[in-house]
Design goal:
2 copies of one chain form a homodimer. Chain A is of the alpha+beta class and about 250 residues long. In chain A, about 30% of the residues lie in helices and about 30% in strands. In chain A, a hairpin with a 5-residue loop joins β2 and β3. At the A-B interface, β1 and β5 of A face β1 and β5 of B. The structure holds a DNA duplex (27 and 27 nucleotides).
DNA sequence: ACAAAAGTGTTTTTAGTACACCCATGT
DNA sequence: ACATGGGTGTACTAAAAACACTTTTGT
């Protein structure tokens, strides 16, 4: 039987506390979420980790995500604390080193984060207790470890809410993107279609987009313009909420 | 020198984890928040507590609030986790039993809740480490213990947000109330005046209010009607968001 | 030349804001 | 009788939704 990984020293982490991350990526064919295939388990799970004794929960989540994705800066948002004392019941780790078994046998209160990352910049990397790390289409996700399905559901709700009062896209799209791409992203997250013309007007009215001279090439049919986010205004909109400019 | 309280057994709580509650109440003359005066401290603080080993964080917050207010059912909402490793620096407890000193010397990650309670049903009760528990007008609150001012600020922001997509009032107003009272509540939370007629229309359109035959008595000038919330619809609006009926 | 996708502008509907008159009550 | 606050309805404005035609490009 294989062993649980040797984590140098569990004592470096705060007991009973974890972070779990719902990492969203976006591709033409849908909204993706990064999942880990647990060793000795049929189930997939959200990437997660523990909180260092001198670390903020945000730093812990960032660290975990950097390890799983290879990315530097990551857009993160805490959205809920999951603390049902029975949330991890029936999923006890029963193999590996005694210290590891004891650690994982703890009751954990987990802080849920969602992250928005550029899909094709991610180099998925399994952690020590998983043997695969891959993207899943959000609508194809099956049963997950413990309460991770609930966490995913809540993350999606939080992301949908964010869409209404904060800009989304800078972290999910390439630096240059077309309006149809941005619209597809919104439609995917919201789960419904939007009117092309109204959508474009609304986005432009927010004043966070810059149209480039360049158009997409090698594409069938009329070539769409490229856009990019105005970093300055985007950041401002994140902090102050979306408002029509003027 | 007085001693820190004897808490039966710190071991019954999860280490490093606390809950802090921003308890909002409403009175004619403004929005109130319940604060504790710490023993051996000039500073006031938010009511808070620790999380039992088999308790959800919601249950912990509820327990704390029941002890401080004497109330049964309390509307609670978690809104943020505060985890700066230095958040409680410079406020170490240096008196009392060694076990207590050690416990309070821990680094704490705290989960912020806000609560909405009926102001005049509350019987404020200090806890073991405080010698007063009273209402403060939100705009009169001075410096608070550690980062409690930040927590209060974030709670207010969260409450203002809630006002936009969820009903508020059932927990802050008496069972029967007048439209001007409800409006005052909204104006107080939002920090700006609202148009009387438009406000009334909007509230009624949400379909969560029921007008009673009864009118306020003994009042100068024209007597306003009493209203009450339709519990059923109120609850539904809480879950699904506010929408105009029909 | 045509099918498919993207650019753009106008109309309609709805929600939000502004505003004015009448009524009841205590002084 | 009058000052004050409360009940009610209408007109205006701005935002959101609905909608159609033209342009470009690859096949």
């Amino acid at each position: 039987m294989a062993h649980l990984p040797f984590i140098t020293d569990f004592n470096q982490y705060l007991p009973h506390l974890s972070v779990d991350c719902v990492v969203f990526g976006f591709q033409e064919n849908g909204l993706k979420v990064l999942l880990l295939k647990m060793k000795h388990h049929e189930l997939w799970a959200l990437p997660g980790g523990f909180v260092g004794r001198q670390e903020t929960v945000e730093a812990a989540a960032t660290r975990v995500l950097q390890e799983r994705t290879g990315l530097g800066k990551i857009f993160l948002q805490q959205f809920h604390v999951f603390s049902d004392p029975h949330r991890s019941e029936g999923n006890a780790v029963t193999e590996g080193e005694p210290a590891a078994i004891a650690w994982f046998a703890q009751r954990f209160i987990t802080i849920g984060f969602y992250a928005l990352v550029p899909f094709d910049k991610v180099i998925p990397q399994p952690d020590l207790i998983s043997d695969a790390c891959t993207w899943w289409d959000v609508s194809d996700v099956g049963p997950l470890l413990v309460d991770h399905h609930l966490i995913l559901k809540k993350a999606l709700e939080a992301l949908r809410l964010q869409l209404h009062y904060q800009p989304v896209g800078l972290n999910l799209l390439p630096p240059k993107f077309t309006m149809p791409q941005l619209q597809k992203l919104y439609e995917t997250v919201l789960g419904r279609t939007l009117d092309r013309r109204n959508f474009q007007r609304r986005m432009l009215d927010f004043g966070i987009l810059e149209r480039l001279e360049e158009r997409k090439t090698g594409v069938a049919h009329k070539a769409p313009y490229y856009y990019r986010f105005d970093r300055q205004r985007y950041q401002q909109a994140l902090e102050e909420g979306l408002e029509k400019s003027q």
